[in-house]
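dude i think i finally got it to work??
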Amino acid sequence: MRNVLTDTTLPGQLAAWATLDPHGVAVSFLDYRANPAGEQFSLTWGELDARVAAVAAWTQAQVSTGEPVAILMDQTLDYVVAFLGVLSAGAVAVPLFAPGLPGHADRLAAVLADCRPPLVLVDHDSDQQVRDFLTDRGLPPTEIAALPTETGERGEQVPLRAEDVAYLQYTSGSTGSARGVMITHGNVVANARQCTTAYEMERGSTVTVGWLPLFHDLGLVLSVAVPVVAGIRSVFMQPLAFLERPVRWVKALSANPRAVTAAPNFAYAYCGARVADADKARLRLETVHAMVDGSEPLQAAAIARFRDAFAVCGLRPQAHRPSYGLAEGTVAVSTTVAGTAPKAWSFDREKLAEGTLAEAPPGSATAIELVSCGQPMGQTVAIVDPKTRRELPPGAVGEIWVTGPNVGLGYWNRPEESAATFGAVLADPTGDTVSGDSLAADTWLRTGDLGACHDGALFVTGRIKDLIIVDGGNHYPQDIEQTVERAHAAIRPRNTVAFSVPSPDGERVVVLAERTRSVPADSVDLAELAAAVRAAVARRHGIALHEVRLVEPDTLPRTSSGKIARSTCRDRYLMN
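look at this
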């Protein structure tokens, strides 16, 4: 039997736990599709390993080692089996979603066109959907097969190496730039171990609870990779189950002591606003171990709203763990220190626009609040001038660079982009490329994110590509968006987007804002709303907006993690 402490593949870890604890529950799926009250279905370590082995043996007969296999299925226990089975077969898993997912059809088509899988795994519900989708989109022919559900004799074990590609993690973003990050077996196991240590997860007591999509990096690592590596139980539901009734997520946390969970920032605010007081009376959240908060610049207001909403249930402020990560780093990069509550720092907005984090009095007119993402969790992080490639001192804003065993190999079939993003090298103070055996000579991942270190902690300030530059001044879109949301009662909170567009006089700023559902469309004075927004933005940011447009609820495009896709919004605006 492999040593569970040293094995560098998820299938190897699974086989070890199946031998050590065959009858222990490995994974549980909370199913709300037929019964609104929910039903729980589980697999033991032994059952999970047997089903994975059967899928691996079947997959070996369908594709060659190293070929991509796409998973287009509903998020159930079968999805977990399919993913691990493809890995065990030595193929490259491509975790995706069934074509029926609203708003993501273009992205799915772009991903399939990029990776061209010779095999697509489906379930009964998605079989015909997938066939129709491939035909309608004119995608290359591929074998479509239902996931095997029977167990039997194990096939020949495929030797897996840490450096072999395990799966392609497609990044969020515009549909025309679908990029599959090549995550190796060693990458995912390393990052799972980093998470296990940073979030203090222990076998026999800790359980992960999730609703995030398993095709998304954070959902996949939290609900599949970490439990398999740490030998802890995973409990998950479908994203729609959470969106329909957010209380389901909180109930699952209450029912599973020492739970570790994760969600993007907007989900905490959404949950805090949607769970009724009557439900809270039956919830016990004092044992929640960690609530990972990541995937976008964090908002102190959203954290406070969730904390205040569930304080009556015993939720500890220290359970909230603001974090930073990205698909190119498997997922997790940094997090706050265990046992400390999230802290919002006030920084001077004008200094930030100039590239410096300088503290400002809380509540002052020039202050902007940022939440710390803590310290690296097993990697090395540097703040670098993206033009000179020189490392910057604490307090200076630059591009976040990362190096460590969790950083992926590169992008699938994109060698030039891979070299530019994953093969960056720091320059010495003179501007020359560093060589030799020093840490600076290592290759680094250029994240494309802006940030700075202050008081020993990492602060993420935004994306380089999203930075708005008007008349020589830098402005962060999320800062403008918060001002817009507060400017008028008809604007839906956390559903606005700001971006710049070219004009004969230089870059100008456009704002799109969704109408809140509680305000009827015919009752909104659009001229008055636009004037209120323009005045608020001019007063707080010194910017004259080019256009303010109110759009209907749920019409702004989103990424796979639920964030509003700024680049896609900008592209669509320019095409109209």
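The chain has a mean pLDDT of 91.
im so relieved honestly
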